[in-house]
Amino acid sequence: MFSILTPVRVAELTGVAAGYEPEAITPVIQPLYDDLWQRLANAGLCKSGPALAYYEDPPAGDGAVVVHAAAPVTTGSVPGVSIVDLAEVESAAAIIHHGSMDDVLPTGQALARWIDANGYRSAPGATRRSPTWVTPASSWRPPSRCWTRRPNRA
Prior knowledge:
Helices cover 22% and strands 27% of the residues. By secondary structure, it is of the alpha+beta class.
């Protein structure tokens, strides 16, 4: 259940959702990714790894969540997009969710139960970093010109 999160430079856009529930996050994050892909394309940049999302509690503590829609990049700048270096996390509790993000709550709850049952606690200000793999029908994917293809093997 423990993992090392390697450092990564990302291009990101942020928004605020009413809470951590999928019905609160989805209407915020999908337009962020649509906008991010368009801005990256306009700047001539492609992502260098899987898209990821991470979430933070805002200082207000009102139950809202700051949503970060991000894509790893190696270089460049993009007008209107923040370039952020996410630090390494030496020890993170991790779990893999398979399926639609609409059904992610039980996975997150299982991780929270494991943390509690094993005597751990979340650090103050902890964030959740979630690699986001998407289906071809999803608007969370980048423009096709950014995809790389493997050469045909003989």
